[in-house]
Amino acid sequence: MSFGRIRFLFLIFNSAPARQRLLALAVAGGFLIHNSFAGGFQVNLQGQRQIGMGHTGTGYATDAATIFFNPGGMGWLDTMVNICGGVSFIIPRTQYLEAFPGTYTAEMIHNTGTPFEFYYAASLKKNIRAGVGVYTPFGSRAQWGDHWKGQFIIREINLKTIFIQPTLSWKINEHFGIGGGFVIATGDFALRKGIPVQNLASEYGEGNLEGNAMGTGVNAGIYFSSDKLSAGISYRSSVTAKVAEGDATFSVPGYLQQYFPDTRFSASINLPAVLSLGLGYKLNKKLTLAADINFVGWSSYDSLRIDFESNTEKLEDISSARNYKDVFIYRLGAEYFLNTKITLRAGIYYDTSPVPDGYLTPETPDSDRIGGTAGASFNLKNNLRIDISLLYNQTQKRTDTNLETGFSGTYQTKTVVPGVGFSYIF
């Protein structure tokens, strides 16, 4: 490849609008998980029993996972100590089709995400309980490959997060309880994207971003229970995840390195607040129904700002619009006590996308989705229970053109999520 062509590509890439759009999307991708499971970049896999019931749990306290779903419900756990945990296996299949009249297609490289959860709840004194939850509400991997059509927007993202939530709950009387917890959020990510400049071997450049994020928040709830009816309201606050000293490295031809120096960067993103209302109703001794409505405050994610420690003529700080919108998630679930050894569950939900037209990207090829769930518990000896769950969802096909990059196409995702967990009480 001639030097003239290299310089031509370099100048195209480094025109301010094009460069800023591509780099902004690159860093944004470091925060955004592959959204094969939930709208935006949220992962709703925080309890195996609850997953089996459509991920309901705000108004129906079943085990220590109520630390996440509604801390006010901890007082209705009927043992001194309740421990539960589990892991889910997110198996997505995402396809891309080039906008008409193009015929190019691509499929995201197959990877499996493994979010987990662990909860411990214990009675301190009469009507007072304490506990801790450790869970992963954001985290997965998206890998489109190094030579696909959108490589200059994203090649690969790998995100891992852990939320730690110490919690207290007070059962005020036989009908009402309140609870709350402080959330400590930590995580790390890695991102790769192509840079449209080539060396003498016709290999495109690459940008790599890595960083650790920290943030804090709260989770609080109120719980009501009577003979047959239970209800709850919970609020999980927004968490601002901040990267203080991320590493940005660039692989480009030597004569371009002065424009792409290895440097540090800082950034932050507002993860949305979630307000949930839930009901549980015991139809009879064997069958219980549950319903949740989640209001997710995605409008807090209106932009992404990136500060590079070292700026050059071609590497400037970034401000990129996102303009997400607030959405609702609707959930229904059922639990059936077959016998003293086996409990069966099923559920369904509808999850609306917060990504407006004009802002769809390969990092979050999001669309409205409907999902179905199933699950079961098997009671073993010594107060040990094994829980299993299975979730399937599918997005609607969605075609869009991103306003910043001009990248167009149609996306659809189908996801299978098996899960397994345990519960131990004493």
Q: Which descriptors apply to this entry?
A:
426 residues, mainly beta, Porin, 4 helices, 8% helix, 53% strand
The proportion of strand residues reads over 45%
| Quaternary class | single chain
Structural class, by secondary structure, is: mainly beta
- List the strand order in the largest sheet: 1-4-5-7-8-9-10-13-14-17-18-19-20-22
Biggest sheet layout? 14 strands, antiparallel, barrel
CATH topology: Porin
Percent range for helical residues? Answer: under 10%
Low-confidence stretches: 1-36
Shape: elongated
Mean pLDDT: 87
Q: Which architecture per CATH?
A: Beta Barrel
Computed over alpha carbons, the radius of gyration is 23 Å
Number of domains: 1
Could you spell the SSE succession in H and E letters?
HHHHEEEEEEEEEEEEEEEEEEEEEE
Q: What is the CATH domain class?
A: Mainly Beta
Identify the CATH homologous superfamily: Outer membrane protein transport protein (OMPP1/FadL/TodX)
Query: How far apart, in Å, are the first and last alpha carbons?
Result: 71 Å
What is the element layout, followed by pairings?
Layout: H1 3-13, H2 16-31, H3 48-52, H4 66-69, E1 81-88, E2 91-97, E3 105-107, E4 116-125, E5 128-135, E6 139-143, E7 156-171, E8 176-198, E9 204-225, E10 229-236, E11 239-251, E12 263-271, E13 274-282, E14 287-296, E15 303-308, E16 318-321, E17 327-337, E18 342-351, E19 369-379, E20 384-395, E21 398-401, E22 408-425
Structure description:
The longest helix is centred in the first third of the chain and has 16 residues, at 16-31. This protein has a 14-stranded antiparallel β-barrel. The protein has a single domain (3-425), classed as Outer membrane protein transport protein (OMPP1/FadL/TodX) (Porin), CATH 2.40.160. Helices cover 8% and strands 53% of the residues. The protein contains four helices and 22 strands. It is mainly β.
